[in-house]
Amino acid sequence: MSQQQDLNLFVDNSIIPQKVYRDEPLFGVITHTQGTSPSWLINLLIENALYGTCVINHEKNQHRQLRSNVVVISFLNDFDFYEKDLKRNGIEVNDNQQFHFIDLFTDLFQKINTPESIVKIFDQLSKTIQNIPNKKTILIEGIEFLLSSTGITSIQLLNQINKLNKIADALFIITGADKELIDIQHANPSLPEFKTLDFIIRLLHRSNIVLGLRPLETGRAKDITGTLTISKGTIPFDSLVVSEKEYLFFVSRETTKLFFR
Amino acid sequence: MDHKRIKLDGQSKMSFRKRGEVLGGPNPRIPNAVPGRGGAPVTAPGIPGRAPLGPNVPGRVPPPRDISGTPLPPRGAGINPLKRTGMEPDLLANQVQNLSVEEIVKHPGVRPSSITSQATISTGSADLDKILGHQGLPVGSSYLLEESGTTDFSSVLMKSFASQGIVQNRLDPKNPNTHVIVLSSNQAWGKELPGVYKGSSRDIKRNRVIQNEQKLSVQNLLDTGDAPKPRASSSSNSEKKDNDLRIAWRYGLNDPKKQQATPLDNETYKDFNHQFDITSRLVPSPNANEITYIPLGTSFKPVIKQLETTIQRHKTKIIRLVIPSFLNPSMYPPPLATSQEALQFVHSLRSLTRKYSKTLAIAMSIPLELYPRDSLLIKQIESLSDAVFNLEPFNQEMLKFLEKAYQNQPTKVQHGLVHVYKVPHLSEKGQMLIMKSEFAFKNGKKKFEIEEWGIPVEDEGEPQQTTQNIDF
Lengths: 261, 472
Known about the structure:
Chain A: One of its GO terms (cellular component) is elongator holoenzyme complex. Chain A: Belongs to the ELP6 family. The structure holds two protein chains of two kinds. By secondary structure, chain A is of the alpha/beta class. Chain A has helices spanning about 40-50, 80-90, 110, 115-130, 145-150, 155-165, 180, 190-205, and strands spanning about 5, 25-30, 70-75, 100-105, 135-140, 170-175, 210-215, 225-230, 245-250, 255-260. Chain A has eight helices and ten strands. In chain A, helix 4 (about 115-130) runs parallel beside helix 6 (about 155-165) and helix 6 runs parallel beside helix 8. In chain B, helix 14 (about 340-355) packs parallel to helix 15 (about 375-385).
């Protein structure tokens, strides 16, 4: 097996470059499929956004300095899901004033039902997040689920994301992209498959960096979990350059390792 | 999976080990199992100590537990659920909140996961527990069982899941510890739950003989006290029988231990799981204190509310929620089967498992013939479930092939493949655990077995003698 590699997304060897928090906002999309759950990557992004470090990289012991607020919005998991893993990565989220978790998972459908109620929730959200001082990184997990479980259309949902994009310095949308979710047999705009496909395509056209997590095509392997593909989005950065490449990655209970392909 | 492989290896070597045990070591079970033993050592002195157990089945007597030091008394008053509902809910909630952690640790059907040390419960099938990775289903999670084709193997597992809960609930009649909720309008569902496997018919006969001998009856007293002659003859008989059986012993054929192959790996969690016999019924069938049916209407909203109130009512117990044949049109009216309704419901279920992560576990089966796996609906339900398994029964040709290949060992014929798509906790943390066609299942009278799958080699010239059980 080749040598273990550092995670970096840009040619300057950074994950989220400092420049993002100055004048070049980032819109990232992370797609994943069954078998390659993205929680490890989300945790690394949270850490990097908070401190600019990354536990699986070689210079992990470098001095940590808070640099941005992180808001995690999840439609699929509660706070407990993240807490333990972040703690293992050395982040005490309970004491951390810069970490905010917005739980849109617990009893979600007692709060929302109609597209209007979703719009209302996002209005509230953007107001709350706007009140957070300084730089902001927002990660949204599982938002595509709303397309198949409510009457909201893909355009309406993208408009909600826009509200958050305006107030965030870095925004990551984490979405499932299994082929079953986007495989349309009939071009019927009310089908959830159609909506999800439309949503993802439009999302990719707004992004400036895309990360894809996929299992190996050859099936399960003992020492490799899958591939992480990093590519440019459709909208280019002004000066930042995405380092396009493909990693092999391996997630086990104790460690996460990356290798070049 | 590694431990699975080790187990199989162990089995293949078993005959050697068994031989050593019978010849050399004093194995307490084997002499007991010979019915005609009649020897003085066990019967006569054994009577006084064992007599009080009377009609109970020996294996099922709950261990005497010292509960004097624990805060049981307040709960003792709450045994009757009717009384409970009458209490102030908040006050009750506070009371039980403090108890619940301790209570769950003490629960005989709970053991820590071998991976994450979360509390886990048995699914009612020891083999399924194994491929779940944690030695069971972690409390606070759900498992989805998909079934392709028109067979109904999944109902065996759904019913075992419920039965397991009821059996554990009855371990200590004063201290109910488990509640089963069934999402079904069919109130008779619980009447068809399988009973605990009591051994092969031969074992049952043996046990009956042993029990009769233990009973304090005139006949027995006569036997032990005044009639030495018949006893002597019977003991010599048994010795002779032992000798006759020696060859069979050698091949481990008549070894009751091997036949049972009980999965109860250690004594610490001896009530963690049981083996269920699908030809028997759980007697008496579960009553309203043990099982709650939640009927289906035209919306899932009231169902979720009812679920939550039922869970709150049984806060000190492990809750096993069973959802048999989810979205099956014979039970679910059309409005429930739309992707919006169904997904909102499954999402709410997931939310409930996280909210009641110390008590609730869910088993759900879904027929794939009606809702194919390559549809968005199933994919989303899978992504909301913690564990996903797929049963794919073999077609006729495959079954014929297997029957031919296992001509002499009809019990070895598997019924289908088991695909694993998600394993609780590990999959969500990013591990890739999709295992297609790695396991096969077979449904038998005494258990639902899942083993590693391999295509059998057709061996025409195999001698016939080895596998058949020869009666002397």
